[in-house]
Amino acid sequence: MSSRAGRPARLDRARIALASAAIVSTFPTAPAWYRPLLRLEDHALYLLRDHIPTTAHLHGDDGRTANYAVNDRLGVKSVERIVPGANASPYMVQHVARYVWAMAACGRRRVVDLGSGDGYGTFMLSWVASEATGIDISQVAVDAARESYAGPKYICADLTDPDSLPPADIGVCFEVLEHLARAPEVLVVASERLPRLLLSVPNPLVGGSHINPHHVNDWPLSSLKGLLRSAGARRIRAYHQHVRGYRIGRGAAPWHGTWLLDIRF
Q1: Is the Cβ–Cβ distance between 242 and 172 less than 8 Å?
Q2: Domains and CATH numbers, the chain
Q3: pLDDT single digits (tens) 95-142
């Protein structure tokens, strides 16, 4: 487990990076060299907006935890959280596959699911873990998890609060960091409290802030790895999912749809 001694300096660097990024109005969290590519894609999507397959973006009618948002520029709906039974789309299969992948590492271990949403993933992890805890900032999501997926413990808390994380052997954080303005601080806290973290983040070219209004971070793979190293990552093993596939393969490239990382702090 990492020492807490370096935490103030790392948090200060994270806050300075966020403040500097806020000066730029378009894709503020993306590095300067990456923004033209995102702007080009944004323009192309706008030109093709009448041909975008909206069925990929309409996930059902359960708005309780899904939290729908409409991208007015493209005319499509996006969700903050995937909800089983309401999200009849390929995205559901991809999300489940990530938790199946994580289960292989979580057997007989104390696991904390960061950004647990309505709890289906935490519930899956509880099948193999010695103890499973889900943490989400939304009380609505936590209440839904307790109602639908009894067994694990669910906590409503801010992930930037070190005291919100119970003792655990491994953390899981799937499709969460892109939603959080203070994501670098979450990584610092995770590095202090967890020896290992399984992480997934969508490629901004597939799920950037110009596509999903709930997303606020547009990091290329190199920036994501840099943030992890700044937070204290000692080893990073990379994996991926393709845009239209659910299988998880070794290695990660800038063109893969989702990046999955196995991190040791």
Answers
A1: no
A2: 90-264 (3.40.50.150)
A3: 999 999 999 999 999 999 999 999 999 999 999 999 999 999 999 999
